[in-house]
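Figure 2 data, in text form.
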Amino acid sequence: MADTTTVDASLWWDSFSLLITELENSSLSSDLPLNLAKKLKENHAWFVDILSCFKLPNQKSKDALNSKKLKIGSQQLSIQSHLKDKALQISSCLLLDEVQSYILVERSIEYNSAAADSTAPEFIHFILVQYYKERQCLLKCIRWILMHAIYIGPVSENNSVKDEAKKLFHDGLESKLVYFLKCLLSRSYPEQMDVALFNLWAEETLIEDNLVLDILFLAYYDPFCTCGSEIWKKFGSIYKGILAGEYNLGKLAITTEAQQLSYHVKVQLLLILIETLNLETLLQMVHDETPYRKGASTFSFTDVQEMDALVSTFSAFEMNEAGPLVLAWAVFLYLLTTLPGKDGNNELMDIDHIGYVRQAFDAGSLHYCLEILQCDILKDYDGPVSGYRSVLRTFISAFIASYEINLQPEDNNSTLILDIICKIYRGEESLCIQFWDKGSLIDGPIRSLLCNLESEFPLRTVELVKLLSSLCEGAWPAECVYTFLDSSVGISSLFEISSDLLADDVYHILEAQQAVQVPGIEGLFVPSGTCGRVLKIVGEKTALVRWEYSPSGVYVLLLHLAQDMYLNNKEEVFYTLDLLSRLVSFNTTAVFSVSNNGLSSGSWMLSGRLARMLLIDCEQNSNDYPLAISGSATSGERIPNELILTCIDNICQSFLSTIETLSPILDASEDMLNILACQVELLLLLTRTVCKGLSVDISLLVMKCASSGLKLLSELKLLPSKANLIMKLLLTLLLLVLQSNSLNLHSNVAADEGSGKDFSKVSNATLGILPILCNCIATSEHCMLSLSVIDLILGSFLMPRTWLPVLKNHLQMQFIMLKLQHKNSSSIPIIMKFFLTIAQTRGGAEMLYSSGFLSSLRVLFSQSGEAFSIIGSPNLSSACEKVEIPQDIWGLGLTVVTAMVQSLGDSSSGTAIVENMMPYFFSEKAHLIFNSLDAPDFPSEDHDKKRPRAQRPSISFANLKETEHTLMLMCELAKHWNSWIKAIKNVDKPLREKCIHLLAFVSRGTQRLGESSIRSPPLLCPPTLKEDFEICSKPSYINSKNGWFALSPPGCLPKPKMSSVSNALSIYGQATETTVPVPKTCFSDTVAVQVYKITFLLLKFLCLQAEGAAKRAEEVGFVDLANFPELPMPEILHGLQDQAIAIIVEFCQANKLTESLEIKN
């Protein structure tokens, strides 16, 4: 027996299941970390050869297992006899190379040691699962590479994923995939495998079919390669063979899951065949009147004739699943025949595309398309589902455009088309965004259908509402739907016409001699004298007339809804409620943005705007036919503040009297608690009414009520639910009063001696409340609210030397630490902000350290992964899919640690934190640190208009804050030089490179000012949070025309509203940018200031690096140039210097002008 045997290095593979986990955990919004990019390159040969790298058994490998050690490239294995026997058994069963079988067995047992002791059948089953898991993860890695490359779109610089995707197809991946697809579909059950394993083998084989087809679909969808006629005919032949039962799909579909997978294989192949017809390109060529010979079509006329010969052999009558392909082929042929430049190709004109349409319709092609969209596997599938829906969207849209399809009432095919369109768009935000972008050519025919339905509103309300409901997926599409309803929808009705109006006299203008009843809505009329246009003649004396009267479509819908609910019109009620529900649910983040400045109309319902709109519209309706409103309204002057303050005083006195009565006995009846609850609720409502005008005396009285009530109720043992409700109201009341006093007193305390005394009174009162609030924290229902009040008190009213002893004696810090691990996104930011407040003092930082905050923070981050990092999210709108309002937990955590390090300085605790957290942040969480420092891409001049998801991602102001938090931590930790250089020795170079790239982005930004070719802002940072929208409506407070103060406004606009829905195809590719100057706002100034804060921290960090290296050089006596930190290029620094000088000169000149005017006056 030889000691060591060397075998082919290609037999070794690193676990693909681990690799796909790393890839899926990486950020989609940036390039891969260097180690992952390296792994992709190392596995390139496996990706290209796909499953053929798993070799068949051979004698050489079998003999190699007789050695004591096995050398496979750089890897070395020690052969264990008991594993060798199992490997040979597995090799025979799986028909897998003996050495690879040994690697598989050893690796599987390493992960699951119990498997080694299992019985033979169980062991084979276990290894079979592991083997197919590796094969499928290999395919998933390839699929992930393509999906990532599609997601990032065109990039200005080299991108490792994009490069790898291109190289795969350059090296022949397409032909390998087609070959393996045919092999998989022809595979027979291995004779050596136990029959009991057939079901497992069948399902795993079908999963591999699905994955291979996913990869092929993505390859043609972007595209990474072009599907020629020969490949298309191969796919067509395979599809025909599958439908005819010539392949193994039917034999493998034994279990329910196998049947679903088998069905999905057919659907995938069908959609690949439709996608590779390039219907979208053909539509563009028809629109642009591009001659066929100059077009981008892949197929020649000869190719088309050969492909038609194949399609003509499909019998859609016998195989209804071929119906959509036959219909798509008819659309393809029709579009070809409409292109100019076909002279001499009469053969193409002779092909009967209408015959194909009849054949497809007779076979139920539309039913099959709807069935595809309704199948369960597409709902839970982890592959490119949105891509599959996009192909169906293109197909249906091209069909509508080719044959001028209109949705006719009571027509089954029209109903099917509408159902298909609704299923395509519902749940796919990217497709909805593209639909409402009027520059999207492919959605134009469907937009025409929407406009046709709108022209008959409210006669065809169900169809219109059903379609709009599917088109409002996401915040911006929902806003577009609302705007469409509110401003674009008119009123149509059936109107009796004179007999002399001919049937072809469409577009005839009529005038209503008397008010016309709006169809289906009792009490709503088109005013007399309104003109209308005849849309069509529907009877001898009846026409459909569109009136020049446009009340809000939302208003009309709601009136219709109110009456339908009494008329038992369940279908219309259902779809209307569904639309309203989706409009509200997709606009919850915009509730605060309602104003008259055009920011957003998305929150019309939640804000009460809907009720106001109804009242206004009712009041402005025709006086001749007013809408009856039950009840009456009385208007008068506002209640004076003095009267409200008197009421507050009286209620407080009554409340305190009741509390004093109950205090000795610590008991209360339910009726008594109900009275207390009503008093507190009324007190809260009245206080909100006058919160800006609260006097100090009233504030102190309300605070006394709150503290007395909280103290008593926290001690009551009976009726805890009722007591908890009152305590919650008292805490809310206390928070409201303190917030009001914080604003009022801090703004006046410096200017007025009396205000200073008032501040002292409130401060002393809060000191007495603090212990009571600490006790309230122990109750889960009041913990977060109590913590918010404490945080406000510590930050606004008390000095650390005053509050620190109280917290040490009364605050249950361990209880709060446990709350930190509950992963409740609404409570964690409150806790973190409180910790940040106390961490800014030495004593508070010591409290946090001794209470185990660092370990709790690690647990929190390990449980949540990257979900709490805003920057780690692929984009804001997809981040918001899972969490409605993303919370910057990661950034807050960094800030708390930074504050602790600053407060503790060089103390033993401070040193311990530095030693503990540096390796954690720059090793375990290095990818999040790097993501925070990613520089945005400058707008590309590549006008690739095919896919909506390749758009430049926007960032939020919270992203910029997170970057600031990251840099603050880096600067603070870098001051501890010796610990720093040890902790980041593996990432120091890429970390500095990231900082320099980000600095270069800031510096280069102003170089693009004035470039006429650049019409997009360098930084897209629209307002996303309530605070953003509030300051977005305020004017600029800096008023600078230089640097980022000039660059930020175009990118800081709220998401644009839909202007109008176009049903024309002539605007495709039209630039949406405008040359009108964008006004500067308080928000754009704030973004610019944040950019310069980040710039300052970047420079500070790089200076600390250079300073540390210089000190090191002094210590050792020479400069180590090889390891000297990279510094920004001079042009980067000059760019920043130019910006700073221009802004400062501008400020000085503005101040000089102001001083001159003052002197002159």
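Caption note: Residues 405-490+550-620 form one domain.
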